[in-house]
Design goal:
By secondary structure, the chain is an all-alpha fold. It has one domain: Chorismate Mutase Domain, subunit A (Up-down Bundle). About 85% of the residues lie in helices and about 0% in strands. The protein is elongated and about 55 Å long.
């Protein structure tokens, strides 16, 4: 049981790190929104999104499908924040 508790604690630590990183990412997304608004740029940049997806595919390895699902949700939230 101690092994399971240790593993869960490791997951909790990683979850906390992920939350902090997502907060940082979304804060930067708001800065991108301001920049795009000032410079009259569209929210969606298809080339940037393709670049991100290619990088994701190259780095994800065996967990590409799972990571892709999560990352598509992150991209959707990012676009939603920029559209607010």
């Amino acid at each position: 049981m101690n092994d399971l508790l240790k593993l869960r604690n490791n997951i909790d630590e990683i979850d906390n790190e992920l939350i902090e990183l997502l907060k940082k990412r979304f804060s930067i997304v708001i800065d991108v929104k301001k920049y795009k608004s000032i410079n009259k740029l569209p929210v969606l940049d298809e080339n940037r999104e393709k670049e991100i997806n290619l990088k994701l595919k190259n780095k994800s390895g065996n967990f590409y499908k799972e990571i892709d699902l999560i990352y598509q949700a992150i991209l959707k939230v990012s676009k939603d924040l920029q559209n607010e």
